Amino acid sequence: MSAELPLLFLLQLLPALGAGAVYFLREKTWAVSMSRVFALLELGLAFVLVRRLDNSSAELQLAERIDLFGIPVYHVGADGITALFVVLTAVLTVLLMFYSLLVGLKSAGKLAAVLLAAEAALMSMLVTMNLLWFVLASVVELGIVAYLLGRWSTSTEENRALAMTRFLQFQGAGLVLFMFGVGILAWGHADATGRWSFDLLDLMQVPPQGKFQSSAFFLMFYGLAIRTPMFPMHGWLPHVAHRGMVAVAPALLLGIKVGVFGMVRYVLPLMPDAALYWQPYVVGFAMTGVFYSAILAFLQISLRRLLAFAVVSHTSLIVIGLFTLEPVGLQGAILLTGNFGLAVTVMLFMVGFVFRRTRTTDLDKLGGLFDRIPFIALVFLVGGLSIVGMPGTPGFDAAHLVLEASIERFGALPTVATALGNVVAAGFLLWGFQRAFLAPREDGAASTVDRTQPMEYFVGGLALLVLLVVGFYSEPWLQLTDAAVKALGAQFGHGV
């Protein structure tokens, strides 16, 4: 369905223009304020996209196509799933703008320009229907994150180098796997039609068969599993979380789960037979990851590393929802991804505020902070409870949908095991909260910690408000994604 207004092009262009303008004017005092304006305008465009979509249609809408560059054709489109991730990206960028300026990171103008550039790359990845274009945008976005880690890391030079090395090794391997998978898809298309194409619609009309589908699934899925990150492809995350930036880069990597989006947009619809074949193995790894990550989380001495293993544990629940291959499970996993992105960003912000005061996130050096910064502690707690989908928190409805589909697909025993693993995850998050904020400190160091500042109330309150509104008013997002997930489920015999 073609677009009358190039809205998707504007979604990519606006943050790119903002990045250029802010970088050029970064020495000006008002350049940073201008970056917030661009981020807010982008958020407005994201909501325009939601309003312009026909929620009753499962087709990719507002399409734009320009055949100017040969094989990497500019071809974009959007459905309800796209719109959800676009809004999430825009919201998190606005929150990151306010957070990064509040914590006083050096070269604020340059940092704001880099964040807008990352947003532009993410928008391109979310709206493109060309797999080669998706790969190119991924290279740009991961390069930007690597620059953030190297330029604004909070660690020593040696630790920063180690974090960068692990990040580049794992993410580079993931990109190579994904690129080879994309190449096999195009090869299979050429074998069937005599014409090479990387376009999603072309590949869906003539889907890969046999060896092409199995090989492409393996390469693309595990390439995205590294990015997600999913057990056992998560080895880069603890290093980056502990030795990289406290919040900004992790929020771009973990808050906006491009790996999950890639599975939903490309892997499942293009390779349904392979997804069905590999389903038991993927779900088995995911269930193992829930418990494995929970056990390791209890062994951590750093709040940042503890959050890293919480991410791996929770990601496993999302993957289980996706690979139920049923509309209810798919929708629950997608909504859980959005809730998780907001919740983990909220928690990272609060850890950043703690680090700003104490210059550490080691649990044995924290404690007793609740008396001095109760608001920060409570926001951290709500974010943690929402991550594990505890009843009464915004993540509960999404987790409920995933478990409902899991019972239908896999039976009671695997579902109960998964739910128990999620309870264990709640346990280590509460344990981390108790160690960092409630445990008494005999040396009295906590009594010297600065109290919460007005701008911290604003940023924390804004982040918490967004999390609660999106979580408790989930009906609009269910309606937005309903047609798209039903169409995807239909490929596995579950559509309505």
Order of neighbouring strands in the sheet with most strands: 1-2
List the total number of helices. 19
The class by helix and strand makeup works out as mainly alpha
Largest sheet: 2 strands, antiparallel
Mean pLDDT: 85
Helix/strand order, N-terminal first = HHEEHHHHHHHHHHHHHHHHH
Integer-rounded radius of gyration: 22 Å
Shape: globular
- How many angstroms separate the termini? 22 Å
Integer tally of domains: 1
Residue runs with pLDDT of under 50 for 5 or more positions: none
Q: Beta fraction of the residues?
A: under 5%
Please count the beta strands (DSSP E, at least 2 residues each).
2
Binned, the helix content reads over 70%
Can you walk through the features of this model?
The chain is mostly helical. It has one domain. Helix content is 73%, strand content 2%. The chain contains 19 helices and two strands. It has helices at 7-24, 31-52, 80-102, 108-127, 131-151, 157-193, 200-205, 210-227, 236-243, 248-255, 258-270, 272-298, 303-322, 327-358, 374-387, 396-410, 412-438, 454-472, 475-490; strands spanning 61-66, 74-78. Strand 1 and strand 2 (74-78) form a beta hairpin. Helix 15 (374-387) packs antiparallel against helix 17. The chain is globular.
